[in-house]
Every structure is written in C-alpha cells, then in structure tokens.
Amino acid sequence: MTDLRFDGRTVLVTGGAGGFGSATCRSFGDRGANVVVADLNLEKAQEVAADIPSALAIRMDVTDPESIQAGIQSAVDSFGGLDVLVNNAGAPNRSGPLEETSVKDMDWLYQINYRSTVIATQAALPHLRASEIGNVVNVASISAKRPRPGHAVYCSLKAGVEALTRATAVELAPEIRVNSVSPVIAETGFVKNAMGSDKIPDDVRASMVAGIPMGRTADTQDVANAIVYLASDLASFQTGVCLDVDGGRSI
Ligand SMILES: NC(=O)c1ccc[n+]([C@@H]2O[C@H](COP(=O)([O-])OP(=O)(O)OC[C@H]3O[C@@H](n4cnc5c(N)ncnc54)[C@H](O)[C@@H]3O)[C@@H](O)[C@H]2O)c1
Q1: Atom of ligand 1 nearest to the CA of 187
Q2: How much distance in Å is there from the Cα of 61 to the middle of ligand 1?
Q3: Ramachandran angles phi, psi of 191, nearest 5°
Q4: Active-site residue, 154 included
Q5: Yes or no: is domain 2-245 CATH 3.40.50.720?
Q6: What is d(CA 51, CA 62) in angstroms, rounded to the nearest whole number?
Q7: DSSP secondary-structure letter at 111?
Q8: All structural domains of the chain with their residue ranges
Q9: Separation in Å, CA 184 to CA 98, 111, 148, 240, 242
Q10: How far apart are CA 223 and CA 149, in angstroms?
Q11: What are 36's strand-pairing partners?
Q12: Contact yes or no for 18/47 (Cβ under 8 A)
C-alpha cells in the first residue's frame, strides 16, 4: 500500500537504538525511508542503522539543546531535508517514590522526557515546514492517564507531552501534523532502568497484565506500527491525536 510508504522521505528517531526506537527505525526503513538513528549510545545506533538500507547513525544527547540542534542539522546535511521527527527518547524515575525524588532527578526527568520534545520540535521546524508532509510523532505513556505509584514526576511529564502534542498540533497546522502514542509497559531497556533488572519479576508482571484487557504487555512492534501509521499519508487528516497503544489498559 503506497500510503504506508516513505520512499524519499527522511525520518529522525530520538532514542533510536532502544526498544521502541529501534523497532520504529526498522519499520520506517522497511517502508523506504532514509532513517536517522539518533541516540546517546552511538555504538548501538550504528548496529540498528546497519540493518536499514538508507540510514545514518548519530550520537545525540536529548538533554543537551546543542546536541539536538547538531543532530538535526546532520540529518538534513546527509539526506537533504527532514520530513518526520519521532520524539521517542525518554526515561523513568531513577530514584523511586515521591519523597525520595531529588531536585536533580526532577530536573533530569524534565529534560529527557519533556524539554527534549520541545527543543527537537523547535529545531526541526524550518525543515518540517519545507517538507510536503511535515510530521511529528511524540512518545508519551499510558501512565499519563493511568499512573502507578512511584513514578509521579515521570507520569506527569508524559501528561505534559500529550498536552504539548495537542497544543503544537493547533499551532503548527495545517503545514505540520503532530500526534503522539501512549504505550503501556513493554519489556525494553526502560524496564531495566525503572526496576533495576532486565526482566519484570513474574508476580509484578502478573499484576500489571491483570490490568490490561488484552492480557499481555506491549511489544516494541505494536508501538512502531502506531508511530508509522500516524506519520503516514493514511493519517493525513489526523493531528493532535494521542493514540493509546495499551491493550485496553486505559479503559
Ligand atoms: N517501555 C515501556 O514500558 C514504556 C512505556 C511507555 C512509554 N515509554 C516511553 O517510550 C520511549 C522509549 O522507551 P523504550 O521503552 O524504548 O526504552 P529503552 O531504554 O529501550 O530506549 C531508550 C533509548 O534512549 C536512549 N537514550 C537515553 N538517554 C538519552 C539521551 N539523553 N539522549 C538520547 N538518547 C538517549 C537510550 O540509549 C536508549 O537507546 C521513552 O520515551 C519511554 O518513556 C516506555
């Protein structure tokens, strides 16, 4: 279906070497896009880019405005423009419950989960405006609507990403569409960062899955599919949509 093709279009994915990011990069690559895999971890970004026919791996630190600006410029220098920005990089609370969340951690959570999205969108704007399909997809979280204890700052910043999605959709229409996805828990590096272990303990997974009507956690491909759809011509009349990818968790 040509509506889901991205031939000749350039897509930049922040956090592109991680769980959702790498699946998203591969999905855009499979559909003909030039893919810029932007991540703090350059080595992993290079591994992801190696499997994609037209790709560039760059080191980008989304907590550093200059690094964001430089990364977007190198995408444009390499491929002649930028059509789709996926603001995917993000991370959970490092310090746990509210009373233990330090001001330093709050500031870092704000920078990586929210400020990065604003700054990357600002930096990409001239290029997205020059594109025929200028497009932003932000990665929020179902925890914005259905928070669990221990992640108050992260959840509220992701709610900010959803509100930012709607606000920028209004401000940037009709030239640029802005949408977001809100995934439920998936067993990526994110879980390792949140729980300090590679796998969710069986009892914790069972209690999480009990709240997901579809009876499982998210796969990275579930999230990649939603991002590709929102960026595609099939969604050309959709902007400001915050699409839950949550197996029904939000019901
Ligand atoms: N996995 C989940 O359960 C879940 C659920 C809802 C939302 N999310 C959101 O999905 C997004 C992607 O998370 P994931 O699950 O793929 O996690 P992940 O840990 O697998 O991937 C995150 C990637 O971001 C990179 N990164 C870390 N700091 C960075 C920085 N400062 N600059 C640039 N890149 C940086 C990491 O190297 C990694 O490759 C995040 O915004 C996260 O908040 C995740």
Answers
A1: 1
A2: 12
A3: -65, -40
A4: yes
A5: yes
A6: 24
A7: I
A8: 2-245
A9: 21, 22, 11, 19, 13
A10: 24
A11: 12, 56
A12: no
Contact status, residue 71 vs residue 119, Cβ threshold 8 Å: no
Q: How far, in Å, CA of 239 to CA of 95, rounded?
A: 35
Distance 111 CA to ligand 1 centre (A): 13
**What confidence score (pLDDT) does residue 2 get?**
65
Q: Ligand 1 centre from 183 Cα, in Å?
A: 12
Ligand 1 binding residues, C-beta < 6 A: 14-15, 17-21, 39-41, 44, 60-63, 88-91, 112, 139, 141, 183, 185-186, 188-191
Per-residue tokens: 8: 């000749």
For position 75, what pLDDT does the model report?
A: 97
Q: What is the pLDDT of residue 194?
A: 81
Ranges of residues in the chain with a pLDDT under 50 are 1
Say what the pLDDT of residue 200 is: 79
pLDDT for res 126: 98
**What Å distances lie between residue 199 and 195, 230, 232, CA to CA?**
8, 30, 33
What totals of helices (H) and strands (E) does the chain contain, helices first?
Answer: 9, 7
Q: Could you tell me the sign of the dihedral formed by the alpha carbons of 187, 17, 32, 51, in that order?
A: negative
pLDDT for the residue numbered 40: 98
What are the backbone dihedrals phi and psi of residue 183, each rounded to the nearest 5 degrees, phi first? -80, 155
Neighbours of 53 (CB within 10 A): 10
**Token representation of residue 133:** 């399909």
Q: At what angle do helices 152-172 and 116-130 cross, to 10 degrees?
A: 20
Closest listed residue to residue 55, CA positions, set 36, 75, 81: 36
Residue range 16-60, pLDDT digits in tens = 999 999 999 999 999 999 999 999 999 999 999 999 999 999 999
